[in-house]
C-alpha cells in the first residue's frame, strides 16, 4: 500500500534536501538535550519512537538525528531538528503542543511521573563549509562525536577559517566523516563564540587512532602554528574543546 506523507512534511523535506554544499544552507537547526528523570529514559525513548517523531513530521519538522551518550551518566537524549526558518520553527512547535494526539501521548506516558527533568536547546546555523546536513545511514554501525569549541576572544572567524581551509580536509584524510558544522545563532552564555560539530567514526577506538594521526600530521602542525601566530595565541580558550561520544537510537533517521 502506498504511503501518502502529510503535505507539510513533503514541503519541509523538499526544501530540506534541496540544500547542498554548493548553495547556502539557510535552515534553522535546533539541538535539544533532554535529561530524563531517574528510571525514565526508556519510557522517553518509547514516546519518541511511538509518537513524538511522527508528530514532529506531521507539523513540518525534520528529524535529523537522535543519540544517546555512550557514557550516559546524566540520562541524556540528544537530538537535532531542522526547520525552513526560525519563524517556521515557532509555528511548528505551537501546532505540535496543541495537537490532541501529542497531549494524549504526553498524558499517558507521564501517568507515573514526568519523563524529563530538564531540557536544553540551542539554535544553530550551518557554517558555509559544512557538508549538506541531512539524515544518513551507513552500511556499518557508526559512533558519533559531538564536539564543541569555544573560541578565544575575537578568534571565532580565525577558527572557522582554519576549519574551512584546512581542518575538514585533514579530518577526511585521516578517516573521519564530517556530519555537520554549526555556530549558535544566539549569543548567550558565550554561545556566540562557539563552533559545534558532529563527526562520525567506525568506533571510539578508530576515533582515537584517527585523531592521533591527525595531530601528528605535519600539515596540521604547520597549519596550527601559522593560524596561532597570526592570531597571537590559541584560537580556543583553555579547556575550550569538549567531546562526547554518542550512539544513535534505534529510531534515529541517522545511523
Tell me what you see in this structure.
The chain has 255 residues and is an alpha+beta fold. The chain has 2 domains: 8-14 and 26-126, Alpha-Beta Plaits (2-Layer Sandwich), CATH 3.30.70; 143-248, Alpha-Beta Plaits. It has 7 helices and 8 strands. The protein has an 8-stranded antiparallel beta barrel with strand order 1-3-2-8-5-7-6-4, surrounded by 5 helices. Helix 5 packs antiparallel against helix 7.
Brief overview, please?
The chain has 255 residues and is an alpha+beta fold.
Explain the layout of strands and helices.
Layout: H1 7-18, E1 28-36, H2 41-58, E2 62-69, E3 76-83, H3 86-98, H4 100-109, E4 116-126, E5 143-151, H5 156-173, E6 177-184, E7 194-201, H6 204-216, H7 218-231, E8 236-248
Antiparallel strand pairs: 1-3, 1-4, 2-3, 2-8, 4-6, 5-7, 5-8, 6-7
Helix pairs in contact: 2-4, 5-7
Label this structure with key terms.
single chain, 255 residues, Alpha-Beta Plaits, 7 helices
Q: Average pLDDT across residues?
A: 91
- What is the first-to-last residue Cα distance? 26 Å
Q: What order do the helices and strands follow?
A: HEHEEHHEEHEEHHE
Task: Identify the strand order in the major beta sheet.
Answer: 1-3-2-8-5-7-6-4
Q: Give the structural class.
A: alpha+beta
* Integer count of domains: 2
Which regions have little confidence, pLDDT < 50, spanning 5+ residues? 1-22
